[in-house]
Design brief:
rod-shaped; mainly alpha
């Protein structure tokens, strides 16, 4: 194989930057999804029920 082609194929310079970019986008997307879930009334009601059950078990049993 031509050495220049071989070097171009095996050169991974800049890959870490691309990996950080993908990781950042994924983290931002996950954060947005969690924010949307935690601000929904259904999930808030679920958390409230779980907390009420936990405290009623601890203090009233």
């Amino acid at each position: 194989m031509n050495p220049r082609i071989n070097q171009a194929i095996t050169n991974e310079e800049g890959m870490t930057t691309a990996e950080y970019a993908v990781g950042t986008v994924a983290a931002a997307g996950l954060g947005g999804l969690l924010l949307k879930m935690l601000t929904s009334p259904e999930v808030q009601d679920l958390f409230w029920k779980i907390i009420q059950q936990a405290f009623s078990f601890l203090f009233f049993s």
